[in-house]
């Protein structure tokens, strides 16, 4: 195991608190907490794959995270800002995990609180529409329900 | 010692007893109640203090083994005769057969992607979802739009003698664990979650009681692998000194004193029929 960083210790503290409060507290099914988290990309800085459209009665929006300068020595995949998906204005956190690539080597798959066991590929050449596919799948799962605040919580799946 | 049976072999009385105990744990208002188990699973899907405890890691199998043991003990407070049954999806592969019958887990979601309409967990009055990334207070399923693993695929995974391999995550390719967990083909565990759909496909999958039957089957398959290759501590990897994952003698959060080594040989506590 690795040593705890301060950030990790804080994160663990928060996780433990969430477990302790359980049903009564932080994770009740409130859908108010994550609405209205507008995130407009700066004009002229949009990824051409970004989207905002109506799908099966819900407004879906996707913002592809560009690469940002990271600290020296950090692998390139860790310098990417997270992709972001919003469904009816509520955030669905999108998380990266490494997967075995079909032809050997690694690829990056994306999961969320809604498709937690079924990653989609986003960035590879034939998967340019991956984030839209993920958003549509989430809408299909949600049906007539909405995301709650829990769906917008970023969590790290490690590497 | 408990005997965990195939769900298709339970008597009506055994099915009713399991459902009743689950509902009493759901109604419990303090301590490690049903929603504590849901919340714990949500928390430990991700890294906690930089360590992958429950998923995308070697401790996927021992972590869930301990999680099931604790759940089973919580049920046995209400009914000492209850054990968790398993759903063998290589045999029971339909949306209306065992265990998805009206006297046990109930059936598919209405319209194929909505609230479960039959059985003891249908509707928020019978079974209320309290903790979830989606706002539905009724249990939902969307069964059968993908495929379940086959017996031949299970055999291929159980034939791999190496437990797990670096880099000890969802991209590991040369061990049994990642094929069992399912980030690598043939993908056993993840696929059954996706096949049931609804809450079972989400971060809060234990909200669907069939979660326990599915994971009991995964634990049974690991036990079959151990029967073939060994229950001894030398069969778990990594042994020591590995960053970000649980080594053989590291504690598995949220339990402070339970290590993979401590749960490898389950046969004194429970067996599979």
Automatic annotation (TrEMBL), chain A:
Listed GO molecular functions?
copper ion binding
Q: Which InterPro entries match?
A: GriE/MELC1_sf, MelC1, TAT_signal
Q: Which GO terms describe its biological process?
A: melanin biosynthetic process
Q: Which superkingdom heads the taxonomic lineage of this protein's source?
A: Bacteria
Family listed: Belongs to the melC1 family.
- Protein name from the UniProt record: Tyrosinase co-factor MelC1
Q: Which organism is it from?
A: Actinoplanes aureus
TrEMBL record, chain B:
User: Per the record's keyword annotation, is Chloroplast included, yes or no?
Assistant: no
Q: Name the Pfam families for this protein.
A: Tyrosinase
PROSITE patterns, per database record: TYROSINASE_1 (PS00497), TYROSINASE_2 (PS00498)
Q: Which cofactor does it need?
A: Cu(2+)
For this protein, the record's InterPro entries field holds: Di-copper_centre_dom_sf, Tyrosinase/Hemocyanin, Tyrosinase_Cu-bd
Q: A Gene Ontology MF term for this entry?
A: metal ion binding
- The Tyrosinase copper-binding domain extends over 55-72, 208-219
Q: Which family does it belong to?
A: Belongs to the tyrosinase family.
Query: What is the protein's given name?
Result: Tyrosinase family protein
